[in-house]
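Lab channel / #folding
Pinned by the channel admin:
"Please post every new chain as: sequence first, then the structure tokens as a reply. Keep commentary short and put observations after the output so the thread stays searchable."

First post following the new format, from NK:
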Amino acid sequence: MAFKTVFQTLSTLGQNLGHLVDCTEVVRVVPLPLNRVLKELGIDLQLTLWQVPVPPPPQGSPHFPAGAGMNLVEQACAQSLFPTLPTNPGPPTSVAPVPFL
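Reply from TO:
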């Protein structure tokens, strides 16, 4: 229990807990197969630290958002060129500025 408490304390060190947002309800978590096997054997372990969040699958094909394109790509590898991707039509995609706390 001390290990979990120490890491929870370290993860919030220097943060105002009142400003943090709890996203646990929107992050999908898929238990590892080990958890299922142990449950089948009658061993009920709480493996919350061993669960792996799974990002949602990508929608459609790779593309740049409206207003972006190859001019924003910083080519890092001369041997393998960045693939040519289509750009979505329309006005440039706006992103709200992130406030500095």
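NK: The chain is about 20% helix and 5% strand.
TO: also worth noting, Residues 20 and 96 are 18 Å apart (CA to CA).
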